[in-house]
Amino acid sequence: MRTILYLFLIILFPSCLSNQSKQLEKAFELAYRNRQELEKISEYCQNEPDKLSAVHFLIKNMTGKQVIDSNSIKNSQLYFDALTFYFNNQGRYKNDIQYIICDSIKQLYPYAESRPLYLLDLQHISSDFLIHHINYCFHVWQQYPWCKDIDFDTFSKFILPYTTSNCYWEQASDFFEQKYAALRDTVSHKSYKEIGKIISEDIDKTFVQNWVLFSQKHKGLLPTTFKNLATAQIGTCLEANIYKIAALRANGIPATLNTFPNWGNANSSHFWTEIIGDEHIDNLYDNTQRPYVSKNDILVDNIFWKNTYSPALKNIPPYTSIQYCRTIPKVYRVNYEIQQNCLALRAKEEIPDFFRNPGIEDITDKYIVCKDIEVPLWDNKHKKEYVYLCCYDDNNWIPVCWSIPRKKQALFTKVGVNVLYLPAYYESGAIIPAGDAFILKEDGELKCFSQKASKNETSATFYSKMPYRQHTALQAAGTIGTRFSVCNNKDLSDSLNVYTIEKLPFYEDSFKIPTNKKYRYLVCEFQNTPTFQDPFSIAEIKVFGENQQQLEGKLTGTKGISDNKLENVIDGDRVSFYQPNKSEKQQYLVFDFGKSSKIEKVEFYPRSDDNRIVTGELYELFYWDKKWIPLGQQYGKENRLTFHSIPKNALFRIHNHTRGKEHRPFTYEEGKQVWW
């Protein structure tokens, strides 16, 4: 046995050595005029074998790495200067002040948008920076007591890299060395995992992850420089983890970025930090819905719509259910080291952007219950060399893994269970279906949605175009305890309580006031809403008098926070909402109708995503058969839709033509919408 292994290594090792040498030489060639700078580093380390090996590791894997040119984003620099100024003075962002800062700048400079350009590291990185960086990393690795059990391979791959996701700052190591100097003096007896947790939690307290600000309200502010991230302490989950990984590595903690191209039952990608050597996960995530109980439930950051346990999430209608968790189809590690079996290196055809990163490594089985599956395809002959499994976001199918088709099937390995997939080709940025959409069940069975679905569902009733998610339910629960009262005295001294919200309102609720007496004021008091829920917020309150005529009046009360102003309560928009400033002593709002009037009914709408079926709005039902095929339009009646003679065992989605754009695919099972 040893002889066979020895002969194998003799054959393999020169081949590996040759490939590594070719990779290094290719990197030097791509450096062009900067080659001399890179060679200076090798010369500097030539008498220190470990450092020379580290230099070669960095350079040979530098191919494709780049950094943003700060000159190309100077138009957006004033945003980060203002955010940095505020953070330096306050230490954290209070009451969503970041929105006010950015909104104010945009009003003054409406055309201050960036057009980011990148510089290739191989062609621009300096020898001075890399020499300083390598010396610093070796000092940390060799001197910090918690690094004593970290081997050279782990050090090279997960401490030594100077960049994550094409973002770095030449002063980063000095910045973090100073930032955590006091901490290091107190934790020398701890393991690097324990120290990594302390640093991670410290960053989570100050660095604000604000997807809405950068992806919706102020597009174009990202990407930005690492220096801006470090000083302003704000970004999306990607920027937060770029910053965290640099902080960990600068303190001798081996760390890397994990990601996936898209959630299984939601839109967008996601990123989080893995400390190499984290504890093994005994119970992998099986993509099933379960309420949050404790931090031990969080196997992947942001799985839950909100990391909150609430006993108030009950009494919802029997035709719906709360979606607590996001699902995950695949998990990838984003390595600095180029992965030799990656699609970016082997593909000769156009591939999706996500798979152009040569550092991605499939680590799905570290986190997720997954299966190796043979996926049936429609054709023997294939228009493309590669076929993908895709998940659905709000409007498109997003590739999440790839395979090589073989006749009328393709083998996909380590695929997350309990997720909806579509096999497809990728061509000119478009997704072309290659087989039936299917749900991968937990036992490995494929529940396929055949093109030959028969129209034999006698009737189906739908109540929503999106799942009722945990954060929406929590927003509704935040109104429990709200008291409504009526009165005629301006000082509200004669207030008569007429209704208290005692159970979770599902998107909207109402109450009647069975009296002939007239009142001038309606008071909504939320002083005693429970603190363990989301903060009180409400989208709309409508007051009706005789003959269902809506009463108009002046609205006063506790001022709102940022854009969540008091007037949002009566703006006719079910998405905009009012959230009171909780620092004020009195928590209430008052409708003044100008004169005493008979009040018959009050409708109230908690803050929500407004994705239920709404009476009077126009909807269209679709089912999937190579594309979304319409099944007819209907106006909502009694907050529901009822369709007859539609395909059974099909995949559906509902589009609102009146307003809104969000939707999710669903199946109809035992009289209930099941969301994917």
TrEMBL record:
It comes from the Bacteria. Residues 565-654 form the F5/8 type C domain. InterPro entries: FA58C, Galactose-bd-like_sf. Coiled coil: none annotated. It comes from Parabacteroides johnsonii CL02T12C29. This is F5/8 type C domain-containing protein.
